[in-house]
Amino acid sequence: MLKYAALFLILSIIAGSLGFLTVSRVARNISLALFGIFLVIALAVAGFFILLERATAGEMGPAKPSSPPLITMIAALTPPDAPPPSSSGARARDLLPMRRS
Fold first, then answer.
1. Mean pLDDT of the chain, nearest integer
2. Percent of the chain as helix, strand, coil, to the nearest 5
3. Angle of helix 21-57 relative to helix 2-18, nearest 10 degrees?
4. Are 24 and 16 in contact (CB under 8 A)?
5. Does residue 15 register a pLDDT over 90?
6. What is the pTM of this model?
7. Does the pLDDT at position 2 exceed 70?
8. How far is the C-alpha of 37 from the C-alpha of 39, rounded, in Å?
9. Long-range contacts of 3-10 (CB under 8 A, 24+ apart)
10. How many Å apart are CA 39 and CA 8, to the nearest integer?
11. For residue 75, how many other CB atoms are within 10 A of its CB?
12. End-to-end C-alpha distance for the chain, whole angstroms
């Protein structure tokens, strides 16, 4: 595409120097349009490759979990001065508060 933009630019210069002003203007407009399209595509491809390089190099960082692990949540709920749970075989009903009748 850049080759055709340069070709139309040269055609515009030659037509302008020979006095064909209408042909020169049309060729110049085509040249500018082709160069603009080339520039947009080139910048998009360069941006894509920069993002691809960052993603493969690990600069974006590892994915973070959306929620903390279960162990961390349980540790945050346990008060620091609470005794550790005993392994003496206590049942769940023993840990519940008793109902007063």
1. 78
2. 65, 0, 35
3. 160
4. yes
5. yes
6. 0.51
7. yes
8. 5
9. 4/34, 5/31, 5/32, 5/34, 5/35, 5/38, 6/31, 8/34
10. 16
11. 11
12. 89
